[in-house]
Amino acid sequence: MPDFPERKVAYMGYTGPIDSDGVGRIAAALNKAVNDRFDEVQLCFSSLGGYVADGIYLYSHIRGLPINVVMHNTGSVSSIAVAVFVAGEERYCSSHAMFMIHPTVMPSQEGMTSERLQSSLNAALADDSRTESILRERAAIPGEILVARRFKDVYITPREAVIYGLVHAVKEFVLPKGCRIAQI
């Protein structure tokens, strides 16, 4: 009987915004796991979202890593954080978790000219398209749900998340006894 080496698994947690600081910490932790030759990262993840550009970067970064990233929604995953979440090869959520997708929000500024307002609208529509493209590639969210998210907040329950392919199963995260977990 062959003797196979045990897989090296890193356990991590992140709760916070998708902004340059948070994304930098997540990417650095994943990079360290790759550099330390781990086979897999299990990431407990909860985020209300943040900046689309930072989320798209992190999605692309995770997809490009030569390591299996398993995502666990252990709270709420909303907005651009949903696109980050679906970067994982394996995805699970707690029975009490929630997902939320919505239209891109652009901050208003005083003194906006019609040209700047049009430019902001164009940027928001482009961000909506990028996010929707990721969700279409990585999940099977019905078209009517994706259309609805362009106009309002759409909440997705754990049961719906399984049906829509956002998660592979509803499963509680349990840290194996004797393992360490790092909060990013």
Give a brief outline of the structure.
The protein has helices spanning about 20-35, 50-65, 80-85, 115-140, 145-150, 160-165, and strands spanning about 10-15, 40-45, 70-80, 90-95, 100, 155, 170, 180-184. With about 180 residues, the protein is an alpha/beta fold.
Helical residues, percent: 25-40%
Secondary structure: number of strands:
8
Determine the strand fraction and express it as a percent band. Answer: 15-25%
Identify the CATH homologous superfamily.
2-enoyl-CoA Hydratase, Chain A, domain 1
Can you describe this structure?
Helix 1 (20-35) packs parallel to helix 2 (52-64). Strands 1, 2, 3, 4, 5, 6, 7 and 8 form an eight-stranded mixed beta sheet that branches. The chain has one domain (9-105, 112-183): Alpha-Beta Complex (2-enoyl-CoA Hydratase, Chain A, domain 1), CATH 3.90.226.10. It has 184 residues and is of the alpha/beta class. The chain has helices spanning 20-35, 52-64, 80-85, 114-138, 143-148, 158-163, and strands at residues 9-15, 40-47, 68-78, 90-93, 98-101, 154-156, 169-170, 181-183.
